[in-house]
Design a protein that fits this description.
The protein folds into 2 domains: 159 residues, no CATH class; 79 residues, Carboxypeptidase-like, regulatory domain (Immunoglobulin-like). Helix content is 4%, strand content 44%. It contains 2 helices and 19 strands. The strands form 4 sheets. Strands 3, 4, 5, 6, 7, 8 and 9 form a 7-stranded mixed beta sheet that branches. Strands 2, 10, 14, 15, 16 and 19 form a 6-stranded antiparallel beta sheet that branches. It is globular and about 50 Å long. The termini are far apart.
Length: 264
């Protein structure tokens, strides 16, 4: 059984610093299958809080990663040789912290969650390249493409990618793709966010059950980000893993959630 969904993937949207498409189901019986717009209507309240926020950054083999840039918008620190970082103050938005992790040669990561007085986290970063959960490839965007990792695949339309000015891009493209199956080891330490909390555009708080997450980075020959042309959607196909029970409860048309955040 597989989940299939058309995605208008805004790789480089102005307010979307990270794009993740998640095939998710609400843990409520009255979930709607209709796609919501990305507009956020709730007021955003930002403040600086005195809180101990620390953690360790590793790779999937458990090796600590040094020199990872850890940012809270207001502050940036680097991990030491043990992969450790520490903040004694952190900015929150609506009482939730937002922390980004960047290291050259690795997929960036983001953690968010309700901030406690003391918080310690572990984050796993995946290097670019080809592995069981990642793909690095170059391709001709003037031709239809299918990019796959295991049983997950993304079908891209021909002549469907544009630059930041909206012009169709027709030279070679570099793609880096990260696919997180919920059964992947360290899934909770690698996924965007941290607690699968979400808010619908009507203001309703929901908790998500993920059937998969995929991050797609598309760049031109100069390293500039590209995105899909309006009206040229891509199609992502996810396998449903997690046992027979999860397959039985999976919706035929799961809603798609987008992980993004505002800088305010």
């Amino acid at each position: 059984m597989r989940t299939k969904k058309n995605l208008s993937m805004l790789i480089n949207a102005a307010i979307m610093l990270l794009f993740i498409a998640s095939g998710c189901q609400y843990n409520q019986s009255n979930a709607s299958n209709d796609a919501d717009s990305l507009s956020v209507k709730a007021p955003l309240v930002a403040e600086i809080k005195n809180s101990s926020f620390s953690g360790v950054i590793k790779d999937r083999e458990g090796k600590p990663l040094a020199d990872v840039l850890v940012s809270t918008e207001e502050q940036t620190v680097q991990t030491n040789k043990e992969g450790f970082f520490f903040f004694d103050q952190i900015k929150t938005v609506n009482d939730r912290s937002i922390v980004t992790f960047d290291k050259e040669g690795y997929f960036p990561a983001i953690h968010s969650g309700e901030l406690r007085d003391e918080e310690y986290i572990e984050v796993i970063l995946q290097p670019y390249g080809n592995s069981d959960i990642s793909l690095q490839i170059s391709f001709d965007p003037t031709k239809q493409q299918t990019l796959s990792i295991g049983r997950m695949k993304i079908d891209l339309p021909a002549n469907g990618l544009v630059d930041s000015s909206g012009n169709i891009y027709n030279n070679m493209i570099s793609a880096n793709i990260l696919y997180l199956d919920p059964t992947t080891a360290h899934f909770s330490s690698m996924m965007p966010g941290g607690d699968l909390a979400a808010v619908r555009t009507n203001g309703q708080d929901v908790t998500l059950v993920s059937y998969g997450m995929v991050k797609v980075e598309l760049k031109d020959t100069n390293g500039n980000k590209l995105q899909l042309k309006e009206g040229k959607p891509a199609t992502a196909t996810f396998p449903i893993s997690g046992g027979k029970e999860k397959k039985k409860t999976a919706p035929t048309h799961p809603p798609v959630f987008f992980f993004f955040y505002y800088l305010i």
